[in-house]
Amino acid sequence: MQNQTGRPLTCLSGGQILTFDGSDRVLDPGEMWIDGDQIIAVGAPGRFNPPTDRPVSRMDTTGRIICPGFVNAHTHSYSAILKGTVEKNPLDIYMLSVIAAGTAMSPRETYISAKLDALSMLRVGVTSLIDHYTERPALTTEALNAVCEGFTDIGIRATVATMFSDKPYIESVPISRDALPQEVLERYDAQQRPDATSYFEVMKNALDDWGNEGERVHVILGVDGPQRCSDALIDMTGDFQRNHNLGLHTHMLETKTQAVMRDPKRGSFIQRMLDLGSLNERSSLVHFIWGQDDDIAAAKEAGVTIVHCPQSNTMLGAGICPVLRLRKEGIPVAYGTDGSNCGPASYLETLRLGAHLMRLTDPDFEEWPDGSIILKEAFQNGARAMGNAGKFGTLEPGMKADFVVMKPVDHWHRPMGDPMLHLFYYETGESIQDVWVNGVQVVKEGEMTTVNEDDLIAEAEEIVAHRKEALPADVVDIVAAQYPAFRNMIIDTLNSKEMAIERRVNLR
Questions:
Q1: Is residue 249 a contact partner of residue 221, using CB atoms and an 8 Å limit?
Q2: Using one digit for the tens of pLDDT, what is the confidence trace for 479-503?
Q3: Which of 168, 304, 357, 427 is the most exposed place for a label (fewest CB within 10 A)?
Q4: Which residues, including other chains, have CB under 8 Å from residue 70's CB and lie 6 or more apart?
Q5: What order of strands is seen across the sheet that includes strand 31-35?
Q6: pLDDT tens for residues 214-259?
């Protein structure tokens, strides 16, 4: 890195550093040096000799634990203003309410929701995220700029994957039109299909401002699960990928009702997307619960990352991702919290739940990965899913300075045992005191430095109140009219022998 005389170096010294590097070094005490946005030295205190012409800002981290910042590989920023709106309904039922209520947001609402979502994550140590951003009825430049600016202003690292689909909802699930009331069918038939050409035009223009993967905030494709996309849209996605060589972040095989929508003549959704050039090593497939052998083989061939979201998967009854099978196949697995309407963005709780589910569904306990292994894979595979493999996720020279400083003083950390076990099995995020992203301290002693938290939350609450007043009066009636048919569809599909893949908990 070029020497920049006059800019202070930062030195954090005295704490315990969990590097998660190739040797999994734990330095106690340790010392880390930062120059701009990069780590330049990690080792024992006093080993690094800084340039004599550079001022040094020193931070005493005695009694603290330092580790890489967490990478949340699947979120939905719009859901930050939808907290407390989801209960036990399966995804297919939940989507009825989303569609009936409408999700159109102004650019200002989009901006505030993105900042609020990032705030919740930064406060618990998430320094990077993939936002599967959606805008209905169609993606616009103004709103896409707003979400990117929200993440830029608050200081988080973000990959914004623009979600888009063009099929009417009832064509994306295995439901018979005859099962739905006539007034519901008329409502669906009257809906204007989103214009795929417009979507790709917005994305093409966005690449000029937000397309550089080297920047802290950048955009990639987020075309939604293939069962929600027309053949034309999937073909256009392949063309766009080949022309622009982007990553793609998409839902994939989240529910059995999605999985049975595959065309028997074409086989794997993933293989078709791979054949079209839509998938590459910077692409990530979210959920991947109902994948069959050919889906797994195609995912491995494509070199994609699978993103596991155990919290939302279990909350909505979607199923359990076969993580151990994927790991055995050499397919990288990252982790995401999903939308804030499915629970808090508590990243460490998400990792723990993922670990516990493996131990319930797979009897060979020798195959269960240790918590430290899950953490390391979450850091590094999360960076990979964001298109930034090898740029952050470890604490070693040359890496981006994305890290958290914890003060483990509360009762559940005393007496202190193995710090790695405490991080994985005990920590909630409440011990996090300081958060650095790209060499900038965005949380200092538990307080945000980049935003007035009270003002942000107050404006978000005003937005929620306004949106409740504007909610269509017939939302409840619309959902109720469709509920019986969708309930029967879900139960019949889960009970059917078609694609009989067991994702049940084995209590042994």
A1: yes
A2: 999 999 999 999 999 998 766 544 4
A3: 168
A4: 124, 125, 126, 127, 128, 347, 348, 378, 379, 382, 404
A5: 38-43, 31-35, 9-13, 56-60
A6: 899 999 999 999 999 999 999 999 999 889 988 899 999 999 999 9
